[in-house]
Write a structure and sequence with these properties.
Layout lengths: L8 E5 L3 H12 L3 E6 L2 H6 L1 H7 L4 E5 L4 H11 L3 E4 L6 H14 L3 E3 L11 E3 L2 H8 L5 E4 L15 H4 E5 L3 H9 L7 E3 L6 H10 L2 E7 L7 H11 L2 E5 L10 H12 L5 E7 L10 H8 L3 E4 L1 H7 L5 E4 L3 H9 L6 E6 L9 H9 L4 E6 L4 H9 L7 E4 L7 H7 L2 E6 L2 H13 L6 E6 L7 E6 H4 L8 E6 L27 H11 L6 E5 L5 H9 L4 E6 L2 H13 L5 E5 L14 E4 L4 H14 L4 E6 L2 H13 L2 E9 L2 E6 L2 E6 L3 E8 L4 H4 L3
Parallel strand pairs: 1-2, 1-4, 2-3, 4-5, 6-11, 7-8, 7-10, 8-9, 10-11, 12-15, 12-16, 13-14, 13-15, 17-18, 22-23, 22-25, 23-24, 25-26
Antiparallel strand pairs: 18-21, 19-20, 19-21, 26-30, 27-30, 28-29
């Protein structure tokens, strides 16, 4: 049967990292917790947690106790469980706690420290054996095992000059150094945790050839010492645990108590951008967030770059899978999700934050990183404030339109084939000669920068995850308003909307740069092309039933670099069925009946779409006006456009009138199809 959370108290012995972690988790979950530490220094380390969690039931006392005193204190406090979180080498304390719990018949949970060792170091059983081994060596020694057994190192010949010690900045530690004959300039009084970088700096500063440590696991800083010794070229003497202990991991204890007490877990999740992936691309904040996490989640490449030896990791990128992983680890309050680059630049951070935000037990912190594009720009030696960005890595994109509108473009590719396809597009749209630079494995030792032109990309054989810089000196020089000369379009025998009519029609359509537009009855594609030039971040669908016109649309789209024009063979409205909802619809060269049917299919998809119709017959005008009266529309307008053009007649010019054109425009009023028809 589960014990009631309110009625159960937990007594923890030990001011170790593991003990402080257990106390913080339980107190934050609403359990009354008392922590017994042996020294005032241990109490000091708990001060921060005490201040934050005192109102939630965390209390602390500092004094050494024998088994009888422990038993008396257990009876007085009456805990439901006792957690022994004392140091792995504190054998006497562990035995006293065990005896006291047996006497009081209270369950005792021994919290084990995880160990990490690869067997490459000199292992010894005690400080005495360490001193005996070091007596046969040369060079300076750094002892990082505390102050308890310092006297053993006096046996080393010349220990006064050879031995340095790193101890806690506590009076009892400094007194032990004095008794062992360790001089002040050989005492490094410091409080951890100690990073690999700091360990390396100390080893090099004092020219250390040997470091003495205990097999104290990840929380005791063993992986950082191990890595530092390797980097600095120092030998490592490891005092192994005296014997194999029995007990429980923190994960097991947390799972047990969470189940027994009905605790509600909580997590602090940091979503950190770690730059391109190499260590030099980490910010200090991201580095610390990854190193300090109890659980590190990310893609395999991210874990390889960010994880420390012995750290609990999980390879995942999908937000749902990440959330499930977090829920499966209630014991890990500090979780970091490592994402490549910057969290605001083509990152999965937004969707992940949304998924995590649905769980009130999760508090999310966002840590920015260095975007790969910034690193790439630095490598090329170019400013990036005027660079346009796009991604073809799992995204739909019209890169040619982007390149056409900008002189500097940077595109993120996700595969080798994607780079090759981009190269083929550049050649197809007449941009094969523009400057191209490819960057791969940025910030890694295998970093490559390839320089050439658009043609080079077709033969690309490098890393799939690449950044591509494209420089089009003619970019953005197209006219900002519609009305390209008719002669710039291929026409053949297919009808074409003339430039004056085209200009006014598009002005009435008022396309946004990211609009989805239908051009129904596209003909030569002149309207589709000009609409695509205006909506260069959007997509234009050119619907045309005549075979001879389809190739003309494709060729005109290629001429103007509008890769955001999609040719749709067929007749409206049937051809519209599978298309995405439009923001704007242009209907040219079709009858009123086609207008009605096209609008009827478009409206349910986009009730507020903007529609422009070109009509040359009075019947079409009459049908359109009838629909405008019947349907719920806004901004209805009918404009008659009469165009005359000068024609040479010998030495003179005569004005020659064209057929009048009716330009009918309107905006949907919203609502359902039934509502749009009025009452």
């Amino acid at each position: 049967m589960k014990k009631q959370q309110e009625a159960v108290k937990i007594l923890i012995f030990g001011g170790t990292t593991e003990g402080r972690r257990a106390a913080g988790y339980l107190a934050a979950a609403g359990v009354r917790v008392h922590v017994c530490v042996a020294t005032g220094y241990g109490e000091m380390l708990l001060e921060k947690d005490k201040k934050e969690l005192e109102g939630k039931g965390l209390t602390v006392s500092a004094r050494r106790m024998e088994a009888g005193e422990m038993a008396a204190w257990i009876r007085e406090f009456a805990p439901g469980y006792v957690i022994d979180a004392t140091h792995p080498y504190a054998r006497e304390a562990t035995e006293n706690i065990r005896q006291a719990c047996e006497t009081c018949q209270v369950p005792c949970l021994r919290l084990l420290r995880e160990t990490d060792g690869d067997g490459k170091e000199k292992g010894v059983a005690s400080a005495r054996e360490a001193a005996e081994f070091l007596s046969r060596t040369e060079g300076k020694i750094l002892v990082t095992t505390g102050s308890k057994d310092l006297a053993e190192y006096q046996k080393i010949p010349g220990y006064e000059e050879r031995v340095y010690v790193r101890v806690l900045p506590a009076p009892e530690s400094l007194e032990a150094c004095r008794r062992a004959g360790i001089g002040g300039d050989h005492i490094l009084a410091m409080q951890g945790p100690f990073s690999q970088e700091l360990n390396v700096a100390l080893l090099r500063q004092y020219h250390i050839q040997w470091m003495v440590t205990k097999a104290s696991g990840r929380t005791g800083g063993y992986p950082e010492k191990q890595a530092a010794a390797l980097e600095a070229g120092a030998g490592l003497v490891v005092i192994e645990k005296p014997e194999e202990e029995t007990g429980y991991s923190w994960e097991e204890i947390c799972s047990l108590l969470t189940e027994e007490l009905g605790l509600v877990p909580h997590w602090q999740v940091t979503v950190a951008g770690i730059g391109p992936g190499g260590e030099e691309g980490f910010t200090r904040e991201a580095w610390e967030a990854c190193r300090s996490a109890g659980l590190l989640i990310g893609a395999e490449r991210m874990l390889k770059a960010a994880a420390v030896p012995g750290q609990k990791t999980y390879a995942a990128y999908d937000p749902g899978e990440i959330l499930s992983c977090i829920h499966a680890h209630p014991e890990e309050e500090q979780v970091t999700v490592a994402l490549s680059g910057d969290i605001g630049f083509y990152s999965g951070a937004r969707k992940l934050e949304e998924a995590l935000g649905e769980d009130p037990r999760i508090q999310v912190r966002l840590v920015p990183g260095v975007a790969s594009a910034v690193v790439f720009a630095a490598r090329m030696g170019i400013p990036w404030e005027d660079v346009a960005f796009a991604s073809i890595h799992g995204r739909k994109c019209s890169p040619i339109s982007l390149i056409r509108e900008n002189q500097k473009t940077m595109i993120l590719a996700g595969s080798r084939e994607g780079v090759k396809e981009l190269g083929s597009l550049l050649v197809e749209f007449g941009l094969g000669g523009i400057r191209a630079i490819v960057g791969t494995r940025l910030s890694y030792p295998e970093e490559k920068i390839l320089r050439g032109d658009g043609n080079m990309l077709r033969e690309y054989d490098g890393d799939g995850l690449a950044l591509i810089y494209l420089e089009n000196l003619q970019g953005g020089k197209e006219p900002a308003v519609p009305g390209r000369p008719d002669g710039t379009f291929l026409r053949g025998e297919v009808p074409m909307t003339k430039e004056e009519v085209r200009s006014v029609s598009l002005a009435k359509l008022r396309p946004g740069r990211d609009w989805v537009i239908y051009d129904i009855g596209a003909g030569t594609g002149s309207v589709a092309v000009e609409a695509a030039l205006a909506a260069w971040q959007g997509q234009v669908y050119a619907i045309e039933r005549k075979r001879e016109a389809l190739d003309l649309i494709r060729e005109n789209a290629r001429r103007f670099g509008t890769d955001n024009v999609t040719v749709v063979p067929g007749e409206a409205p049937e051809a519209l069925d599978s298309l995405p909802a439009p923001d704007g619809v242009f209907i040219g060269g079709s009858g009123g009946q086609s207008f009605r049917r096209s609008w009827r299919l478009s409206l349910p998809k986009s009730p507020k779409a903007r529609v422009v119709l070109n009509a040359v017959t009075l019947e079409t005008v009459a049908e359109a006006v009838a629909c405008m009266k019947k349907w719920n529309l806004q901004e209805e307008e009918v404009v008659q456009l009469n165009v005359s053009r000068a024609r040479r007649a010998g030495a003179y010019h005569l004005m020659e009138g064209q057929n009048p054109i009716y330009i009918i425009s309107m905006t949907g009023g919203g609502g359902t199809w039934e509502e749009s028809q009025g009452s």
